[in-house]
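stuck on this fold:
=====
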Amino acid sequence: MIEENIDTKIVDVTTCENDREMLDRSLYGAAQCLRAGGLVAFPTETVYGLGADALNETAAKRIYAAKGRPSDNPLIVHIAEVQDLEVLGYPNEKAYALAQAFWPGPLTIILPKKDIVPHGTTGGLDTVAIRMPSHPAALSLIRQSGVYVAAPSANTSGRPSPTKAEHVIEDMNGKIEYIIDGGPVGIGIESTIIDVSGDVPTILRPGFITKKMLEQIIGEVIIDPALEKPMENCHPKAPGMKYTHYAPKGQLSLVEARHVEEDGSQQAVIRKICELADEKRAEGYTVGIMAPEETLPCYEGHADALVCVGARHERNTVAAGLYAALREFDAANADYIYAESFRGDGLSYAIMNRLLKAAGQRVIQVGDDPV
């Protein structure tokens, strides 16, 4: 049951993130709230998280209720000290090597869990997902609270993840005790998740830390085949694997060329998006188009909401702007949304993973009929 009409306190820490003493004072009340079993939304370097005491199963259930999140979708436990790996799970050499290389930072490591971690936090799994964020407000909150903080993204389940405090307020105001405003986040997509509990380390969610970066530290890493297709009738091993995520309210479709190496393929994609948008607008629908800055002018006059998602030649700007762009279409009440594809390796793979989830795997190839 979702709690409503809670007096949500909003704490702005944007002016004190570089002043540790002032930051700690500003977050004291929120930290005590976490210790008492309350819910606190806070910024990380990836997206805003919705935190609760990870070892308090009742508090963890409140996260699921506030988000409307399926209870078999595991939560990530946020820590502030590397040695806490041993409290929560059974780390191996590869886990320690990854922690040394990438923590604090946007990497989540999955380990066999210890009994201290309730199944209500792990979605019923015998493994636990752990990460140490690098955002100073997140680290201060964890340290002051004295608890390990379970935290999925601080949005209504299925909606685009929040990258600004305004997004959290839109989804969570009146449902949780505190919202910490740390301004816009830096990375903009969720952490990479790697499972080191089995024989071969496996990426369960792509992110800013890429497969190549991981392999440079621990050798062979594989990508879970489930990332390439929708999961059905199975238990997700990590957040974001099974369910539709990040979706705007309107129907999002991705448009791409069947053979991207052909000359003129990008122009064919642009023509197709304009054609589809014009058809829907002629039928009386509100239409949005999301594009990188390089091709954005090509769509002028073809959309009710034309949104720039960053620069194709700087994929980090696309990652940082993706979720905010998707939320702009909700504000415009877009019925149909069309976007260019971002297939590729590294960060492009992570961006495309989020787009495919948001579109419900709906991809229109140039020359194909719309699905």
Notes: The longest helix spans residues 265-282.
